[in-house]
C-alpha cells in the first residue's frame, strides 16, 4: 500500500500591471457608456464629486472582477445598477454621514428660483423630497433621473436596464403614489 502525499501547489506569481489581461471590450464599452450617469446619480446622494467618483470607481472595480458572472445575469445593466446603488449607500455610511437623501436638492430647483414665496416653496419641496423617500428604490431612481437630472426615458432606461415603456410606467405609478402621500396638487409635475 502506498501512501499518497499531498502536494502543495506553489503560490501563483504576482502579476504586474503590464502582464494583467486587458478588460473585456464589453466591460470597457459598458464603463464608457455608464460612468458619467453613475457619477451624476451618486453625486446627487453623496453631495460631493470626489465621494461620488470613489463610490462609482468601487462599483466598476467590483463589476470588472465579476464581469463574466455579470454577463450571465438576466439583465446585466440592472444588476450593475444595483451594485452601484449599494456602493453609494455603503460609501455614505462609511463617511458617517446621514443616510443618502435628496433634501438639499430642494434648494436647487427651478420652482424655487421662480417662486413668488421662496420660503413656502422650500417647505413644499422638502415635503416632496420626504415623500420621495417613501417610494421604492426603483421609483426613486427613476424620479431623480427624470426630474432632478433632466434625463429622458430612453436615457434612464439604458442606465437602469429597463425599457422606456417601463420608465414611463414607473413615473406614472410614482406620481400616483406621491399624490396619495401629498395630495393631488403637490407632485413633481410642478417641479419640472
Keywords for this entry:
single chain; 192 residues; mainly alpha; 9 helices; 64% helix; disordered N terminus; sigma factor; DNA-binding; transcription regulation; Sigma-70 family RNA polymerase sigma factor
Low-confidence stretches: 1-20
Gap between N and C termini = 82 Å
Strand content: under 5%
Provide a count of the helices: 9
Structural class estimated from helices and strands: mainly alpha
Determine the fraction of residues in helical runs and give it as a percent range. 55-70%
Major sheet: size, sense and barrel closure?
none
Shape annotation = globular
Keywords: DNA-binding, Sigma factor, Transcription, Transcription regulation
Family: Belongs to the sigma-70 factor family. ECF subfamily.
Organism: Streptomyces pakalii
Domain RNA polymerase sigma-70 region: 34-98
Amino acid at each position: 500500500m502506498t501512501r499518497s502525499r499531498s502536494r502543495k501547489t506553489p503560490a501563483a506569481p504576482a502579476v504586474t500591471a503590464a502582464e494583467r489581461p486587458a478588460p473585456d471590450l464589453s466591460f470597457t464599452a459598458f464603463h464608457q457608456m455608464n460612468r458619467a450617469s453613475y457619477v451624476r446619480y451618486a453625486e446627487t446622494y453623496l453631495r460631493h464629486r470626489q465621494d461620488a467618483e470613489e463610490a462609482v470607481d468601487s462599483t466598476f472595480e467590483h463589476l470588472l472582477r465579476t464581469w463574466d458572472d455579470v454577463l450571465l445575469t438576466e439583465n446585466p445593466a440592472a444588476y450593475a445598477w444595483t451594485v452601484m446603488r449599494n456602493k453609494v449607500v455603503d460609501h455614505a455610511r462609511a463617511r458617517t454621514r446621514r443616510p443618502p437623501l435628496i433634501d438639499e436638492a430642494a434648494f436647487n430647483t427651478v420652482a424655487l428660483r421662480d417662486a413668488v414665496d421662496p420660503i413656502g416653496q422650500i417647505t413644499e419641496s422638502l415635503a416632496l423630497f420626504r415623500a420621495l423617500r417613501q417610494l421604492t428604490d426603483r421609483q426613486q431612481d427613476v424620479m431623480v433621473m427624470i426630474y432632478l437630472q433632466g434625463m429622458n426615458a430612453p436615457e434612464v432606461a439604458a442606465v437602469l436596464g429597463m425599457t422606456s415603456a417601463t420608465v414611463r410606467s414607473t413615473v406614472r405609478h410614482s406620481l400616483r403614489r406621491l399624490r396619495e402621500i401629498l395630495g393631488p396638487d403637490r407632485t413633481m409635475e410642478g417641479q419640472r
